[in-house]
Every structure is written in C-alpha cells, then in structure tokens.
Amino acid sequence: MIKEHIDLKPEIFLLGIIPNKYSKKNAYLVIIVSAAARIVFAQHWKGKEIPTEENNKITKMLECVFLLIGKDCPFLLRDLLASQEFVSIFGQPVMDVLKVFIGSPDSLNLRNILWHGFVSAKEIPVKYFSMLLFLTAGLGQLLNNYCLQAHSALIHRPYVSFIHLKELHIFPDLNQELLSLAEELVTKSNIVLKTMIPFWIAAITSFQQARYADCVILLLPQLEGGLRVLFTAVNKCPSRLMTAEILAKQLNNEEMNQLPIVLGESAMEFLWDFLNHQEGPRVRDHLSHGEINLNHFPREIANSMLSFSITLLCRFSQDDLTSIKEHKSLKLLMTCANNYCTKFHPITQLKKQVCSSLFSHCCYCVLNLQVKFKKLEYLQPFVLFRLLIELCSKHIHTLYSPRTILETIVVLRQISTHCHHVSRQVISVCETRYEQWINKSLRSRQRLNFLRMRRSIKLLSPVFQLVLILITLELANIDMICRKNTFEYQQYLKFLKLILQYIENLVTYTSPEKNKWDETIVLTHKSLIKIRIFLGRELMLVQLAETKNTVSPHQNSIGLT
C-alpha cells in the first residue's frame, strides 16, 4: 500500500543510489521515473528537488529533444526511440538500452505494462527501478554535453491546460464518508483483483491528500484492468484479458462486444468523453505523454474519474452489500452516472456551435441596422432562436456513429464555424461604421461603402437564418444519412460543401480589409439559386418515391388475399 509522499533528491538520480525506503511495493514509481521530465535534463537538477508528482514526462521531454534537430515528431514512444535523431544525440548503445526497458512489446516494455494495469505492486523487481534512475541521470548528462557542443538550448513545449472544467465536474464532491465506502467497495468488488487492491487504496488516499494527479495516475490503469476483467466475463473469453478491445463496438471475430451493453450508454459515453474524444480532456493520453503540469492538476477531473470508478465498483460488487448500495450519497453518484450525456462528441460540439451562432446572429437585434421582416414575422431572430434551440435539445444517439455521419458533422461544423465568424465580423464593422456615421466622421467613399453594407446585410441576415435552419434540421435528422445509398450520399456531401464554399467566401468578402459588399450580394444570389436547385431536386425525388410506394385499396386487397 502506497501512502507516503516520497521526495527524490537530485543526488539520488545523479549517483544512482536507491534508498531502502523504496520497497517493491512502490513499483508504481517505475511509471513515474520512466516518464519523468525534469529528471532527464541536468539544468533542472541544480538546486531543485524532484517530487514524485513529476511523472510520465520522459515522452514529452524526448519529444523536445527530438525537435532540437528533427521536424515532425513521432507520436508513439517506440517510434521516437527508433529515430536517428536520438542516435545522433545519445548514441546507439544508450538507445538500445532504452529500447530494452521502455521500447516495443518485444522488450520489457515497462511503461506500457504498468499503464495498462497488467502488473501488481510486487511484480516489478526493484533493480529495474534502480536502472531507470541511473539511466535517466546519464541521459541528462549526455544531453547537456550535446547542447554545449552544438551551442543550442532545449526549448520546452508548453503544458496542455484543461478547459471547460465546469463541464468536467460531473459528480458531487467526494467527502470522507464516500471515500470510506469506496475503500470497502474495493475489497468486495468483482472487478478488482486482490493483487491490485493496494493501487486502488493508494488512489483513494492520494485524493484525500489532495494529490489529484497521483490519484488519477494510479486510478487509470486499475480502471482499465477492472474493465478488462469485466470484458472477459461478459464476452466469455477469459484468454482475452491482455488483448481486450474494451471500447470497441465489435470483437476481432466481428461478434458484438457485450461490454457496452452491460455498462450502458451513459457509462460508455463518459469513458469516451474523458479518454477518447479529441475535444475532450483525453486524460490518459495527456498524462502518459507528460503534457500536464501535475502540480496544478484539476480537482474536478480527479473527482469525476474517482466517482465514476466508485459507481462501477458498486454496480459490479457482491450481493451482500445492500446496506452500502442504499447509502444516500452513493445513490446520488449512481444517479449522476446513469444520467450522463456526452459533452465532447462531435454531434454535441455542433449543437454548441449552432447555439453560439444563433446568439451571434441575434446580436443584429441590438443594432439600428436590424432587418425588419414583414411577411416572415415567425422568422424574427428571437423566435428563430427558441425554435432551433428546441430542435438542438433533441437527444441523438452518438455512441459508435457511422463514418458517413461523422464526415457530415465535420462539414456542418465547418459551416457553423464560418457562419459565426462572418456574424462577428459584420457586427463589429456595423458597430464601428454606425458610430462613425452618427458622429459624421466618415469620408465620402466610406459613406457609400456603409450604405452598400446596409443593403448587403438586409440580404445576409435571412440567408444566415436559412443556413442555420438547414444545419439544425440536418443535425436533428442526422440518422437519415444512413439510409442514403453511395450516390445519394456523395451528392448530399457535395451540396453541403457548396454551402461551405459560399460561407468561406463570405468570410473573405466581409472582412474589414476587403469590404466587398456588392460582391457579397452577387455571390449570395448565385449560391441561393444552387441551393434552390438542389433542394428542389431532392423534393422531387421524395415525391416520386412516395408516389411509387403508394398502394391503392384495390391493390392492397389483392396483396392480402
């Protein structure tokens, strides 16, 4: 059980001396050392202590070293270690030793087997820990010598900052009572191997001590290990523990993965949000690549990850824990987990963009240049805002979205992004020019340009409403794409890209540098004609299909006899 906070002095790394207090139970420090950032570099050692929180940084710092003489840095650590750039800096013998310890699956592969939760606290010999410490010190000396000879300095890439912390705060704050229940659940859960209990307890202890990075670093491999145990049980494949495709829709034999069905949609969306989606926190990726400042790791993320893990422990625990499962605070956690909806799937991100674009469009209402609709009162900006927000609130299943849907969402998001850009540009120019108009500070040419802009806006405003309506309706009916054949889908995508090209041109024409307002009107008219032709063709095809599928009463009676 790992409860103590261990401070590693620079002398320990430089001399390769391992104090007796680093027992085999502290094997998790192999992860820390194998990825320590500031350990690698001599300039970070002088006059500084190196706390254990500085873990998982060797990947980040090796990338920084690569960029001393390389350009495109490999993503995978094994590719990084195989690069010739490192051979020229550290030498081939050193790189061969690194490959033995943290290289490909053919090596000891210490980093990966620990990150994936494959080993217990007693299964990594302390001599490996000692060797990594000694090797890391040597890397620092070699790098320092290289920088002196090459007259170059190492530039550290900035840390990744977690944003949207309010969205990442999913569960109520964990209190001491809940953490005590969690410790009991760890010992009774069916997805926790007995040899891994010390890691679970250490993660809970780290949270109690406000060491949130340590908590998540310890927790993630165990969460993965627990899901692997569950995967092998529900798919009835005990031999697949080390090769489990936990989050995959199908297994290698094309059978359906039963784990998502057992976990449920909410749990799967949580895992995808926090670990996989590109615009989510991608907690494991950033931590394992040393991209996070661990001294400022957000409590919100640690609270959400630990709370979610507690709900899994509770769901898959022994039946004699009724009193614990009925605890009020624990039931509240379960409710939050069961009601979770994705926040970072591309579809959800598109919904946010549409809302943002709607708000931007409604800002026209605060301008004296606001367009007045006489025949289309129902399309007034605020009415439109309410209608489209209601459509955006419609629940859409996002788990395992087909490729065609994801491709469509990409184009729709690009259209929405550029619409927002154009809106902000127009509003900014309008406010500036209107103020100058009132103050009579515009030159003759600027006044004419201002009048052209007013005429252009009268057309742009309803067109923008049309585009936002199209995006929202396509989003609300996104599942219909799966019914299109290849030709229909290609034509549909071509239509969306036509709109995208139009909006991209608007970004240029409405920029303060261009101010091409007459050209904007011409471009809009041409694009509207193309949109009308496509929609007319689509409507005709729908009507033909309906006519073809209409069955007369006489035909129906014949068919039934």
UniProtKB/TrEMBL annotation:
Looking up InterPro entries in the UniProt record yields: DUF4209, ERMARD
- Spell out the Pfam families in the cross-references: DUF4209
Please list the residue ranges annotated as the DUF4209 domain. Answer: 71-138
Spell out the PANTHER family in the cross-references: ENDOPLASMIC RETICULUM MEMBRANE-ASSOCIATED RNA DEGRADATION PROTEIN
UniProt protein name: DUF4209 domain-containing protein
Q: Which organism is it from?
A: Pseudonaja textilis
